[in-house]
Amino acid sequence: MPGENLSRDEARERAALLSVDGYEVFLDLRSAVGEVGQEPRTFRSVTTIRFRAEPGAASFADLIAPSVTALSLNGKDLDPAEAFDGARITLEDLAEENELVVDAQCAYSRTGEGMHRFVDPEDGEVYLYTQYEPADARRVFTNFEQPDLKAPYRFEVRAPEGWTVWSNGVGELSDGVWKFAETKPISTYITAIAAGPYHYVTDSYERVLADGTRLEIPLGAMCRKGLAPHFDADDIFLVTKQGLDFFHDNFDYPYPFGKYDQAFVPEYNLGAMENPGLVTFREEFVFRGKVTQASYERRANVILHEMAHMWFGDLVTMRWWDDLWLKESFADFMGSFSMVEATRFTNGWVTFANNRKSWAYRADQLPSTHPITADIRDLEDAKLNFDGITYAKGASVLKQLVAYAGRDAFLEGARRYFKRHAYGNTVLGDLLSVLEETSGRDMSSWSRSWLQTAGVNSLTPQVILNAEGRITELSVLQEAPESHPELRPHRVAVGLYRRTPGGDLERYARAEADVDGPRTVVAELAGEAAPELVLVNDDDLTYCKVRFDETSLETLREHLGDLTDPLARALCWSALWNLTRDALMPARDFIGLVLRFAGRESDIGVLQMLHTWANAALTQYAAPDWREEGGRVLAEGALRELRLAEPGSQHQLTWARFFAAVATSAADLQLLEGLLAGTARIDGLEVDQELRWALLGPLAAHGAAGEEALAAELARDDTASGKRHQVRCLAARPSAAVKAQAWAAVVESDALSNALVEATIAGFAQPSQRELTAPYVSRYFEAIERVWAERSIQIGMDVVRGLFPHLQGAEALAAADAWLAAHESAAPALRRLVLEARDDLARSLRAQACDAAA
After folding, report:
1. What share of the chain is helix, strand, coil (3-state, %, to 5)?
2. Do 371 and 395 meet the contact criterion of CB atoms below 8 Å apart?
């Protein structure tokens, strides 16, 4: 990996030297099918680049490929052995106008990077798709791989007979070659190809624009043929059209890239990718079994997130990855914003507050936290910065900005930004300048506080009552961690809640205030009756950790389920979880609250998040000597709620999955076996194929389902999805030999695809098998530097994160500290991953100590 890196300084120097007029790329993908005599399996890639440069200058082009067949610059043949080092092509004595032609053999990928090749085990069909961000287009064609060297592209692709090929532009088959319309000027990382016997459905979107012209956008959606029976393209198109309506209403800039295809592809590393005209998604968004409304909401959010990128990211692109937030933070915010205002998922801000923000809070308390506008030194830094700060914190801050500047000013700023910088590249100041124009606010001080500093503030209410039980003074106290002491300006709503005669906990007073500095008095609430609950950041206007005064905390302990407003309830749950993570609330107390009140949670997304948190509280934050008892009460409570849930409801399905995840006793496992065999029934619960695998996972982990049973289940579900589930379950079995085999398959071999690496890692470390995985503490730290050097960055990240021995407590913490001390010169990105995992482990140990003292 290090030889394939590109630094920011190198990118700046190259951008100062040259500009690109256009690319012509020919790919011959016929080698994707049929037998191959040797590995790696390759395809022909011929690239012609026309570019301008300072006469006499020297630079380089990017290409990662097994070999270059022929190479010419301005009509002069170059020796590939001298000019190409496996990652770069040296370019010397450039002219003012240049033409580079490279004929190369590029490798198909099994890691989801570059041109990924997938063979469907169900029918043997082969599928291809590309994934490039941040810098893997160079694995498919020669280019200048940095976002600020935009250019138009013409692609031509020869594919196996019977295949269809898609790219960013409209394509047609002519003389056996798929030829695509030239793109607008775009960055390398958002060019795209998909090819194969995909199941493809079409529709169209029409709209009359403000100037009276008619806009028509051809729509397409595709998946593997094996998933076609489950493909609900009508719902995908519905959300797509609603999103296009919303963005046209608010952005005043017509969708600029012609057609709009959406490809749901196998073995995808990301949630989705915003390639203009050909958006790619992980195929798990095609639901093979019954799922809850939260799954459809999540898919809608991702569809709209990627659509927002057509403007924020594709039309206007950051100059370098420092300003990644200019696309990802905006897309994350606009995904929820448009979903709530334009689709059936009107409770999207509840999910945002409870789910997305928890990702941000975690990331912002790691030693690797960084400002939203980050310092990205190279491509390895860039890869790791697709994180909770860039996405969820950035989106949260934009939500705060809308409250600060006003909705109309924010959207007008976006409209001016698109028109001024269309098809160009920008930096932070370009956006702030238009927002200053439209809002009249000083964006520089806001930016310094919110975009250019790291860390999360805590806001705590302080209430003083008079003798009559009314508020004399209510203030908000703001704190910051020592490591990041910035106290920020917050636009917040403070809500006062008390119980009604009917027992509901409802808001009776609310005031908005600008919190700034360590203490802010909210004068509007003076004179109000004494509250039972004070909720700082009511309505979730700002980004902060919410704390409670003692009265409020006691109210939540007794009456959390009585809160009638779903957003207020979600905010309280999130705050309680942060208290648990910060070792301020014992894990067993949090689990007790989940057992007491989660059964009354109406929002299915919040309920699923509570299940995730409760399981984490048990396995990571509970004192070791309480884990067995905690697991028993959690399983008992899950089974109780499962039996109480409405038959056939999404709540019933959610409790069934959670019960399976926490089942440990012989009786619990026997019930899971009965549900699988059909000898046990829970009224209304349909045990479809996806739920069958969810039930089999814990059975395998506890030794109640062996290799034979898992093989039989794969025979029942002989699909790509079934294979991933089987591999995960096989690795979860409680056997030293199984663990050794799984370790070897992931760490010592590169034979597995990215999806099967992920599945093996998911099965390897089970909370009930700490003794089995203890021997791998030392082996992990002996292997990671070699893995990082030898494997692709995606696989390196998966292994370093996924196999960190987080279940091994103090022993693993000491080993991590020793490795970090002895490897100060290791790749910065690798050290960051280890530091993050080490910090999570240290947090777990602090929380366990808190729980033990309860």
Report:
1. 50, 20, 30
2. no
Identify the burial level of 206 via C-beta atoms within 10 angstroms of its C-beta, where 0-12 means exposed, 13-18 middle and 19 or more buried: exposed
Under 8 Å between Cβ of 697 and 732: yes
Residues 143, 188 contacting (CB under 8 angstroms): yes
Whether 294 and 351 have beta carbons less than 8 Å apart is answered as yes
- Angle 516-522-526 from CA coordinates, rounded to 5°: 165
- Tally Cβ neighbours within 10 Å of residue 469: 8
CB 650 within 8 A of CB 292: yes
Crossing angle, helix 604-616 and helix 587-597, to 10 degrees? 150
Q: Which residue has the tokens 């594709």?
A: 314
Mind telling me the catalytic residues?
Answer: 306
Distance CA 144, CA 20 (A): 9
Sign of CA dihedral 516, 519, 521, 525: positive
Residues 6+ apart with CB under 8 A from 402: 410
pLDDT digits (tens, 9 = 90+) for 583-620: 999 999 999 999 999 999 999 999 999 999 999 999 99
Distance CA 507, CA 99 (A): 68
Q: Which residues pair with 126 in a beta bridge?
A: 119
Asked if the peptide bond before residue 134 counts as cis, ω within 30 degrees of 0, the response is: yes
Q: Which residues of 124-138 are buried (b: 16+ CB within 10 A; e: fewer)?
A: ebbbbbbbbbbbbbb
- What digits encode the pLDDT tens for the residues 156-184? 999 999 999 999 999 999 999 999 999 99
> Which residues neighbour 389 within 8 Å (Cβ) at sequence distance 6 or greater?
360, 363, 364, 369, 370, 371, 372, 374, 454
Residues 87 and 62: beta-carbon distance below 8 Å: yes
Reference 340, options 419, 246, 473; nearest CA is 246
CA torsion 620-624-627-629 (nearest 10°) is -160
